[in-house]
Amino acid sequence: xxQVTQNPRYLITVTGKxxxxxxxxNMNHEYMSWYRQDPGLGLRQIYYSMNVEVTDKGDVPExxxxxxxxxxxxxLILESPSPNQTSLYFCASSLRLPNTEAFFGQxxxxxxx
Amino acid sequence: QKEVEQDPGPLSVPEGAxxxxxxxxxxxxxxxxxxxxxxxxxxxxxxxxxxxxxxxEDGRFTAQVDKSSKYISLFIRDSQPSDSATYLCAMSGGxxxxxxxxxxxxxxxxx
Lengths: 113, 111
Known about the structure:
The complex is a heterodimer.
Chain A: E1 4-7, E2 10-13, E3 19-25, E4 31-38, E5 42-51, E6 54-57, E7 65-66, E8 76-78, E9 87-94, E10 103-104, E11 108-112
Parallel strand pairs in A: 2-11
Antiparallel strand pairs in A: 1-3, 3-8, 4-5, 4-9, 5-6, 7-8, 9-10, 9-11
Chain B: E1 4-6, E2 11-14, E3 19-25, E4 30-38, E5 45-51, E6 54-58, E7 61-66, E8 71-76, E9 85-93, E10 100-101, E11 105-110
Parallel strand pairs in B: 2-11
Antiparallel strand pairs in B: 1-3, 3-8, 4-5, 4-9, 6-7, 7-8, 9-10, 9-11
């Protein structure tokens, strides 16, 4: 089954404790991205990757890091999480540009206390 | 001015009604226009996309794009309770084809 898999689905952590949210897709897609979804603000792009070893900032990259060492994986790293990073996070992948059909993961609900 | 504006609703309609959802945008570089549906506690899923101006129909769903007015619409005919969800418009274009989303409209179809 074609899918984008995120882990964990739910996470509660403390301020400053480094964490990684994993994302994996099994569709051989080139384009992957991370979004956060907040009430009243909608979906905002954090980082994206057009292919292996090619990443770039989206609209709200501060406090996040990503890497793309393999085509299928695109982890999101929060090196020192803060409460304002409490949000619902989605990973998405698209076969290639122009990025018209993005497949989304199920989401990761992160709470930073 | 925000790049993409979408009325958040909520919108509540009776079963069988025709639903109209809309977005406006300001970025002339947008060329691809998409509608996503998001059920509660799920990731968004693509409903349909349109390139440039025009109409596209898929079953009970029709997407319309008017680039001259920078206005896109999604119509749902014979709405069903299973259509109850948040509908997100999204657009892409320019140098990196980044998806820019509207904030979403919450739709409830009442039996």
